[in-house]
Amino acid sequence: MVVDLIGSCRAFVGVSETGSFTAGAAVAGIPQPVASRRIAALERHLGERLFDRATRRAQLTPFGRDLLPSARRLVHLADAMEHDAKRAKLRPLRLAVPGTCPTRDLAELDAEARALGIFLEFRPAPPGERAELVRTQDVRAALVAVPETDAVWTVPLGVAATERQQLPPVVHLETLRAGRATKAERRRVWIQPEDDVPHLRDRVFRVRDAVGLQPAQVSVADSLTAAAAAVYGSADLLLCSPAQATELGLGWRPLGDAPLARGFDIAATLGEDAHHLRTRLRSGIARCLGAPDEENV
Questions:
Q1: Where is each HTH lysR-type domain found (predicted)?
Q2: I need a surface site. Which of 121, 136, 217, 248 has the fewest CB within 10 A?
Q3: Do residues 60 and 111 both lie within one domain?
Q4: Residue 21 three-state SS
């Protein structure tokens, strides 16, 4: 017969401290008959009586007095382990995310994760830093930028401008090429920091050069705020996702020269964390990234 050593010791300690099987069972949080059975099983396991049952009060035998300190230590260790386990479950999963993720969407993702017993703590960071934060264990996981072909989540990119620009249904970068006779300021396409990664930036630069734009006409902005400000105050365009364009109050159009998309995957120190984020929280993360509905499957 297998003895529940911790449960039996808990009943043993409870009865010894109260001097009553009934009161001791209440302290241990179990019915009195269960406490009696557990103590009897412990006595059989140890080969000696723990209590003198000849008296009305639950009185320890000499053997019971000798075993009581060890039983208390075992119960305390079990309680400490349960406490540590609860704390470990509440330990937040620090997740590095793009700075483009809206606060509301992150809050909804956090609430969704808590319902699954996962506690998230977000750390916004540029794309070049997020994987490094995982490597240095400053975070447990990160949404890292990857080529579209390697991505779990993809976010289409195009260009956006103020509504007064009246963009065509599809924008071609060659239309930004100014004739030699014009003295008007050349329009620019601004690349925000989130898209300042080789598989996106270099592709846009190659299109720029192929259609004959000036190098400065496709530039990387210091921040999304700076890029949006330039677009608000001019005829410039912002390379962005449809969700970002809506958030900024801009009109969005796809690029005809080169279909572009951000790609994201999970980098994590533990495979279990990566699995939970890719599967159980897939839809919530897609919402934060601005991925279209068909990605949320």
A1: 10-61
A2: 136
A3: no
A4: helix
